């Protein structure tokens, strides 16, 4: 059935092994981030088979589903939690990233109610300006957090390369390590988990600037795609085509390249613009914005370009494609991390592991 997402098991396993070994050589454990593919069990099983033991996801529903599927590995919740989901966080997660004292107090109270302990990892914002407390506030936060019951302050974490697009560098990772020392001075002990970032932080290994104290990275994109997209780097030796999106052709015709008549807003509230290139051969595929973020895919065949898409249809210009194409043909697409995020949440896209 189409559209479908095809996952190459062997290539995924290869990437997971390579990233694990790369980090292990520098004393860093890999926590595999499962949110990019909606924590689908068959994909997670391949990653775990590569020897990666810890998992992370941003959605408690994904973590709950993994537990119901008998995945008993250590799982970290990497989105700072909502107060409304604290009960499930305590019940299903082994650790959680936090940046708000009110949230931490709620977690502590819930741990008491459930008779459970949970690991707390404090998020520190070193410049990307998403979640996290500022480095200068770490000492006061840790001092207050240490008074709470049934929580284990396991470490500190940071993140760059997301909202602000801040690149990891020697300066911001140094600010993070200074925050670690500040927290440890308050607690009077060495913290076991120093989680220095995500895939983009692999850059510091490449550049020889990763501090020895960093002993964990939360990695998704490098395993899934073999790239460090924030830094614009490929990771040598990895496969870049683990995932293929396939869609079926439902119409092939020669048509004008520019709409006929007055152009207004499309179904998504935008005014489309089309270049007049004359009569062109076009293929319509049964794939649309309800299935995938269109700018997250690219036809794998040379000579095919995306003209546009509605909720259910994708239009390709195939005038320059040297092969033949007809109704019923299946067209493969390369897919980005953002494209995978959207495809994975769509019930209309079949997921197949080969």
UniProtKB/TrEMBL annotation:
CDD domains: PLPDE_III_AR_like_1. Residues 7-224 form the Alanine racemase N-terminal domain. InterPro entries: Ala_racemase, Ala_racemase_N, PLP-binding_barrel. One of its GO terms (molecular function) is pyridoxal phosphate binding. It comes from the Bacteria. It comes from Calorimonas adulescens. Pfam families: Ala_racemase_N (PF01168). Keywords: Isomerase, Pyridoxal phosphate. Its cofactor is pyridoxal 5'-phosphate. This is Alanine/ornithine racemase family PLP-dependent enzyme. Coiled coil: none annotated. One of its GO terms (cellular component) is cytosol. The lineage of its organism: Bacteria, Bacillati, Bacillota, Clostridia, Thermoanaerobacterales.
